[in-house]
Amino acid sequence: MNFMNSLGDGWTIYLWLVAGGMILIACAYWMRWAAKNGQFNEDIKYLVFTEADRPKMKPAEYAKSREVLKEQEELRVKFLEQQAQSQIKSK
Residues near 62 by Cβ (< 8 Å), separated by ≥ 6? Predict the structure, then answer.
């Protein structure tokens, strides 16, 4: 506690500045990660639809949902292949 009292007035602003800087750096890192991993893809909303939703959707929306689903399945297969290759290399 003596150390805290030995500091002059106004030292807490520097602590807040450091904390704020760390938060900004963390946010920038997370935004970069999200951008690289397709987290800002607006078409992701179409993945919740199934064949049962076809009568409720317009033909263009249904076609878009099937296209997005196909793209996501291709990305998943690609990811699983990369993951399997990295596991083989690590052994």
Answer: 49, 53, 54
Burial of 64 (0-12, 13-18, 19+ CB in 10 A): middle
Q: What are phi and psi of 28, to 5 degrees?
A: -60, -40
Query: Tokens representing 46?
Result: 């179409």
pLDDT score recorded for residue 1: 63
Instruction: List the domain boundaries for the chain.
Output: 1-39, 41-91
**CB-CB contact of 68 with 50 (8 Å):** no
pTM for this predicted structure:
0.57
Strands (E), the chain: none
User: For residue 86, is pLDDT > 70?
Assistant: yes
- Can you tell me whether residue 37 is helix, strand or coil? coil
